[in-house]
Specification:
heterodimer; A: 340 residues; alpha/beta; Peroxisomal Thiolase, Chain A, domain 1; two-stranded parallel sheet; 10 helices; globular; B: 157 residues
C-alpha cells in the first residue's frame, strides 16, 4: 500500500483531503466596529462590558457568541460540531474555557498568544484530515480591557503609550473546518519555531514577532520549493507598522523580497490611522476577525487565489518580562486556497 | 565545545544586528513636544495647588502648614473625581510626566487600581491591589525619607 506523504521538509504538513472553511463569524467591540472592516463583521457590540460584571466575562461572551454565530452560519447545531480548538490571551485561557463549558463541545484549549488563530486552524485542519474530528470549530479572541490590566496598567491610569505600542483588538473570530468541503481550502501549513532575537521592550511586540514570521516564511518556501510568486498575498497577524517593516528587512537579508504590495498585516487593516492605535492592532482577536472580515471575502470573491496566512504571537508573560527574559515569538502559517 | 562557542557568538552577533535594525525602524517619542506639554500642564497643576493653598490661608484661616496640606487635599480630590469619571487618563495621555510627577499622579495611581480590581471583591480585589502602582513609591519614598532623616539627625542636628 502506498503511504501518503503528510509531512514535507522540516516543518510543513500536507493536508491531502483539503479541509475547508465552511463557515465563519466574527464579533467585535465598538472601536473595531468603527474601523474600515466594521461592516464585514457579524456583530459589533456597542458596550465593551457586554452587560457583564467584568471585562473578562465580556471577553468570554464575545468568544462564545462568535462560536455560536459560526455554528449558526454553518447551518448546524452545537451537537454536530465534533471538536472546538481555541484560546485567548487571558491567564489560563479563561474566555475560551468558559465558552467551551457552555457550548459543551469537546475542547482543546490552545495558547499561542496572538498566533492562536493559525495554531488552531492548522491543528484543526490536521484533525479533520486525519479523520479524527469533522467538523472542527477553530476560534480565538481577545479584549483590550483585559489585556491592558493583565499586561500593562489599569484602564484609568493616566500614562502615555509609546509610538511602537499596539492596541489589543476587542473581538473574536470562529471558523468551521470540514473535510473536503468549503470554498476556501487549507492544503498545507507550516508550524512555526519559537524565535527570539533578544527584544525586551514589551511595547514593541512587532519587533519581537517579526523574526518568527520571517523564519516561518523562509522555512515554508524551503520545505515546499515555492517562491513568493506562488502566492497572491502574505497576510500576517499583528506585526503592525514596525514589525512589517522589520519582516521585509529580515526576508530581504535572506534574498526574499517581500514588500507592501504582496503583504497585508491584519493589525494594519482593522483600525483606521486616525483611531489612535499607534503601530496598529494586536491580539488573538485581530487575526481571527480580520480573517472573517477581509481575507476570506477576498478569496471568496476571487481577488486572491492563494494566500499564506500567518498569525504571529509574542510568547511573553508578565513574570518572564519582570525577570528580565527576552520576548520569544512564534508564527504558524496556513495556506488558504480558493477552490477552483 | 568550540562549535558551541562559535554558535553562541554567531547568535550574539545576530541579536546585536537585529537590535540595530529595530532601533532604526522604531519611531521614537517626540521629546520636545512631550516636554512642552508636561511643562505647561504640570506647571498649571502646581499653580492651582498654590492657589488652593493661598485660598485656605486667606479665607479659611489655616496656618501655613495646614494651608499647604489643604492645597494637596483639593488636588487629590479633583484627581480622584476625574479618574472616577474617566477623564483623568486622557489628561495623563496628553501631559505625561506633567500629571504623573505632581500629587495628582499619586492620587491617580491609587484610584485607578481601586476601580480596576473591584470585580475581584473588596478584599482580594480592591484591598489587595490598591497599591500595585503606588506601593513601590511608598516603600522607597518612606525608606529614603527615613535615611535622609537619620543623616540629618547625625550631622545636621
Amino acid at each position: 500500500m502506498l503511504k501518503t506523504v503528510k509531512h514535507i521538509g522540516e516543518q510543513t504538513v500536507l493536508l491531502e483531503s483539503m479541509p475547508g472553511i465552511i463557515a465563519s463569524a466574527a464579533v467585535v467591540g465598538p472601536k473595531e466596529g468603527k474601523g474600515p472592516l466594521g461592516i464585514n463583521f457579524d456583530e459589533v457590540v456597542d458596550d465593551p462590558l457586554c452587560g457583564q460584571e467584568s471585562f473578562e466575562m465580556a471577553e468570554h461572551m464575545i468568544f462564545r457568541r462568535a462560536c455560536e454565530k459560526c455554528i449558526a452560519n454553518a447551518g448546524m447545531e452545537k451537537g454536530q460540531v465534533q471538536a472546538l480548538l481555541g484560546g485567548d490571551l487571558l491567564n489560563q485561557i479563561m474566555a475560551a474555557s468558559l465558552s467551551a463549558r457552555e457550548l459543551g463541545i469537546p475542547f482543546f484549549g490552545l495558547y499561542g498568544a496572538c498566533s492562536t488563530m493559525t495554531e488552531s486552524l492548522l491543528l484543526g485542519a490536521m484533525l479533520c484530515d486525519g479523520g479524527y474530528f469533522d467538523p472542527v470549530l477553530c476560534a480565538a479572541g481577545s479584549h483590550f480591557c483585559t489585556a491592558e490590566r493583565q499586561y500593562r496598567f489599569p484602564l484609568e491610569y493616566g500614562c502615555q503609550r509609546t509610538p511602537s505600542a499596539q492596541w489589543t483588538v476587542t473581538g473574536a473570530g470562529a471558523h468551521m473546518l470540514a473535510r473536503g468541503r468549503g470554498k476556501v481550502r487549507i492544503p498545507m501549513g507550516t508550524v512555526g519555531r519559537v524565535i527570539d532575537l533578544g527584544v525586551t521592550d514589551a511595547n514593541n511586540m512587532g519587533a519581537a514577532m517579526a523574526p518568527a514570521a520571517a523564519d516561518t516564511i523562509l522555512h515554508h518556501l524551503l520545505d515546499t520549493g515555492r517562491t513568493l510568486a506562488d502566492y497572491d498575498q502574505f497576510v500576517t497577524g499583528d506585526l503592525g507598522a514596525v514589525g512589517s517593516r522589520l519582516l521585509y528587512d529580515l526576508l530581504g537579508k535572506n534574498g526574499v523580497e517581500l514588500s507592501g504590495k504582496k503583504h497585508t498585516d491584519c493589525g494594519l487593516m482593522i483600525f483606521d490611522k486616525d483611531q489612535d492605535v499607534h503601530a496598529g492592532g494586536s491580539g488573538c482577536g485581530c487575526a481571527a476577525s480580520v480573517l472573517r472580515g477581509y481575507i476570506l471575502p477576498n478569496l471568496e470573491m476571487g481577488h486572491w487565489k492563494r494566500v499564506a496566512f500567518m498569525a504571529t504571537g509574542a510568547l511573553l508573560s508578565t513574570t518572564s518580562s519582570q525577570q528580565g527574559e527576552t520576548i520569544p515569538g512564534v508564527a504558524h502559517l496556513v495556506v488558504l486556497e480558493r477552490e477552483a | 565545545m568550540k562549535k558551541q562557542d562559535q554558535q553562541n557568538s554567531a547568535k550574539e552577533l545576530l541579536r546585536k544586528q537585529y537590535a540595530r535594525m529595530v532601533e532604526k525602524v522604531t519611531p521614537s517619542s517626540k521629546l520636545l513636544e512631550g516636554c512642552l506639554r508636561s511643562f505647561w500642564v504640570g506647571g498649571l497643576i502646581c499653580t492651582l495647588g498654590q492657589a488652593f493653598s493661598d485660598l485656605g490661608y486667606r479665607y479659611l484661616s489655616l496656618n501655613s502648614t495646614e494651608a499647604s496640606t489643604f492645597g494637596s487635599m483639593v488636588l487629590v480630590f479633583i484627581t480622584a473625581l476625574l479618574t472616577g469619571i474617566g477623564i483623568f487618563d486622557r489628561i495623563g495621555k496628553y501631559a505625561g510626566a506633567g500629571t504623573v510627577v505632581p500629587i495628582t499622579g499619586f492620587a491617580n495611581a491609587m484610584v485607578s487600581p481601586a476601580m480596576e480590581y473591584r470585580p475581584e471583591g473588596w478584599v482580594l480585589g480592591t484591598g489587595a491591589k490598591l497599591f500595585t502602582i503606588a506601593g513601590p513609591v511608598l516603600v522607597y519614598g518612606i525608606t529614603a525619607s527615613v535615611a535622609v532623616g537619620l543623616i540629618y539627625c547625625l550631622i545636621g542636628g
